[in-house]
Amino acid sequence: MRLDQCHNIDDFRRLARARLPGPVFHYIDGAADDEVTRRRNTTAYESCDLVPNVLAGVAEIDMSVEVMGKRIGMPLFLSPTALQRLFHWRGERAVAAAAQKLDTWFGISSLATVSIEEIGRTIASPKLFQLYVHKDKGLNAAMIAACKAAKFDAIALTVDTIVGGNRERCLRTGFTSPPRLTPSSALSFALHPRWTLDYLFRAPFELSNLKDHLDEGSRKSMSVGDYFTKMLDQSLDWKTAEAIRADWGGEFCLKGIMSVADARRAVDIGATAIMVSNHGGRQLDGSRAPFDQLAEIVDAVGDRIDVICDGGITRGSHVLKALSVGAKACSGGRIYLYALAAAGQAGVERALGNLRAEIERDMKLMGARSVGDLSRANLRWR
Prior knowledge:
The chain is of the alpha/beta class. Helix content is 43%, strand content 14%. The chain is built from 15 helices and 12 strands. The strands form 3 sheets. The chain has an 8-stranded parallel beta barrel, surrounded by 8 helices. Strands 1-12 form a two-stranded antiparallel ribbon. Strands 2-3 form a two-stranded antiparallel sheet.
């Protein structure tokens, strides 16, 4: 399969699987326990139908939205994800450039493989930093200070990872950061020489924002699940979240909100956005899908805070359904990670371009000239 034959997310997934060693592919693709929630995140959209209006004069449409204080050209953005240079040697650099070209938000993780400083220096479009609160308080403060200096536009505090999920695919493949050569992984690395040569001879792999504070993840191999469980602060609470918001002082998002009670607490501590998210099904298997939970959260707080529907999206019609319920925008990780692995920046641009074209076409078919024309009046649940 070639890049020009990739017309949907499943196509990019197949190409990524062909180009990545097994342990790396299954890190992207896998989830927790039986992966019920990972599947449910997408299938949730199938229980909701769109009801179009016609003869609406839709030769020109406006799909732009304002979210977290920035107007972006499409109502879909790229969630921050870790370890991107393991999927393609340019990693976050490729993803950031694609997001800038498509005029949308892009985020990097605390576990990013390119530094906060470099992204701040090279990318002009809206930038989000995903903060994982570590036991090392000096590290937390240093990352927030770096985001201020680099003029990042928002911080997303991830609140659903105080311990690592039970990611059994990673346990079976032995995936670690950095990758550890084992008898079971050696053959897969050998069968993917392009990836292996890039990993061995490009810039050394590192967790750029952590390496000066921690050996784990950069020089000392560790699974992501173990990293979360051993290195992150399990005492993280609402008081700490409020203190981080005050220290940061800018647009502040809580990533991983799933209950109405927590959405209301987010408003109370001064957050400006929430990402309704279950971490792509990678943490608590059996948890509810973001789309299924979206309506009650929007009804509770949607007039006071930006509500973002994160995860499970594979089609433009999914975005329209979430916007119709009341989300300000949607976001996802696998939607661009497969494409990054498949073809670097060109892959991410094609995946985003495909989804943007679907959103535009589907808005026209719905008779919606702007995002504001979408509402629950054009939805029916089975």
